[in-house]
Amino acid sequence: MLKRIYGLDAATVAFTDRSSGGDGEVPQTDGGGIYDTQLSLDEFADRVISDVRTHGDEFVKRITRALDGVDVEDFKVPHEVVKSAYQELNAEEIEALRLASERVKAFQKRTMPNSWRDEQAGYGEVVHAVERVGCCIPGGTAPLASTVIMTVVPAKVAGVPYVCVVTPAGNNGLPHPAVLAACDVAGVDDVFMVGGAQAVAALAVGTETIPKVDVICGPGSVWVTAAKRRVFGMVGIDGVYGPTETMVIVAEGSDPAIAAADMLAQAEHDVLAAPILVALSDESIDAVERELATQLEMLPRANIAREALVGRGAAVVVETVEDALKVAEVYAPEHLCLGFEGAHEMLSDARHAGGIFVGERSGEVMADYVAGPSHVMPTGGSARFSSALSARDFVRVTPFLDLDAETFENIVGAASSLARLEMLEGHAMAADIRRRR
Which residue in the list 268, 291, 334, 360 is annotated as catalytic? Predict the structure, then answer.
């Protein structure tokens, strides 16, 4: 079932610079007939952004009708409709959303940077939240209520005054009630029924109904991702996300059923999901593959999961756990599951991952829903240089100077000298004039 790779060297060749490769044919679209030619991802995003800027709500309605087959008269979901969504959920589901929100809030409070000042040195930093955040919640084939919690709560913890959600309307003309209930639990200020590249464009430039924001966050389709990439600079974004991925490392004594379950939990998301197994023997891989076959029979989304396993999955055989962690360092997975005894002792060696899940109790599924960290994590190898979404993504950290006389006198001469070294006399004069005064 899984393509097998033998040895650290072969895995390094297979996984190095994987983000530069493609996932097959590059998609094109004419926007459901909106445009008179087929456009690439970036071309389509550019056209949509331009048309939303020029025509506002009118164009957003038009392209939503063309692409989603939904007529939306008013994008904004009335607050009373959001509140009434609880009626469609049972008590256990509501309590689960509230528990998730509280745990995420507690975790995110620990991530917040603090303002500070060193009076003797004459410097410091002040932390301010951005003013407006827009969270993209995919429609797709599953109501991702958890993604509301994982994007909105960090922004609220950061102190953002206004947080809105954009999410597509369903066949009944409204977003899924689980998504709406999650919006209320998380404290969303407004919900707008729009998805795709047009939702990103509307948040970036503003329309008559949808406000321009400072930061756009959340996952989405390749079209959403392309639009986020093109609006970066007009607004901040959390990252450019691809299909989900997980790497599970097993050793002697690991439970193959748990390893298989962790792989399927990602494989069922998308046929482009990447479930990767790293083991110390072919026998361990055989045991996990038997479990995969058994568990697939019980999975409603088995066809999606099976295609991901065959098309994007892999199993790597290495000699030691240390080599397994080196494979993870090369791959830099979104999720790294350390499913073996003593994993907590090797936590510091697992450097490149969006999130690390230590031991068999700490399954990635726990972080997906209730554990505390946001499940919005870097993909495509970007965990080498970026981090999971957190309250830090919604604040600006601004340095300041407040020099006393003694500190000023101690450093002003060096400032003047360095300015003249760079042949910038105006800079030097700005230092010298202060000194003489």
Answer: 334
Give pLDDT, residue 22.
46
> Which of the following is catalytic: 335, 352, 360, 364?
335
CATH class of 243-384: alpha beta
21 pLDDT exceeds 50?
no
Q: Which of 165-179, 287-301, 354-368 has the highest mean pLDDT?
A: 287-301
314: nearest Cα among 267, 349, 258, 382:
267
* Domain range summary for the chain, segments of one domain joined by +: 57-237, 243-384, 403-436
352 given a catalytic annotation: no
425 alpha-carbon distance from chain centroid: 46
For the question of residue 334 being annotated catalytic, the response is yes
Band (pLDDT 50/70/90 cuts) for residue 128 is: very high
- HEC string of the chain? CCEEEECHHHHHHHHCCHHHCCCCCCCCECCCCCCCCCECHHHHHHHHHHHHHHHCHHHHHHHHHHHHCCCCCCCECCHHHHHHHHHHCCHHHHHHHHHHHHHHHHHHHHHCCCCEEECCCCEEEEEEECCEEEEECCCCCCCCHHHHHHHHHHHHHHCCCEEEEEECCCCCCCCCHHHHHHHHHHCCCEEEECCHHHHHHHHHHCCCCCCCCCEEECCCCHHHHHHHHHHECCEEECCCCCCCEEEEEECCCCCHHHHHHHHHHHHCCCCCCEEEEEECCHHHHHHHHHHHHHHHCCCCCHHHHHHHHHHHCEEEECCCHHHHHHHHHHHCCCEEEEECCCHHHHHHHCCCCCEEEECCCCCHHHHHHCCCCCCCCCCCCHHHCCCCCCHHHHEEEEEEECCCHHHHHHHHHHHHHHHHHCCCHHHHHHHHHHHHC
- Prediction pTM value: 0.92
The reply to whether 57-237 and 243-384 are identical in fold is: yes
Q: What is the pLDDT of residue 140?
A: 67
Is the separation of the CB atoms in 74 and 59 below 8 Å?
no
Domain 57-237: homologous superfamily in CATH: Nitrogenase molybdenum iron protein domain (3.40.50.1980)
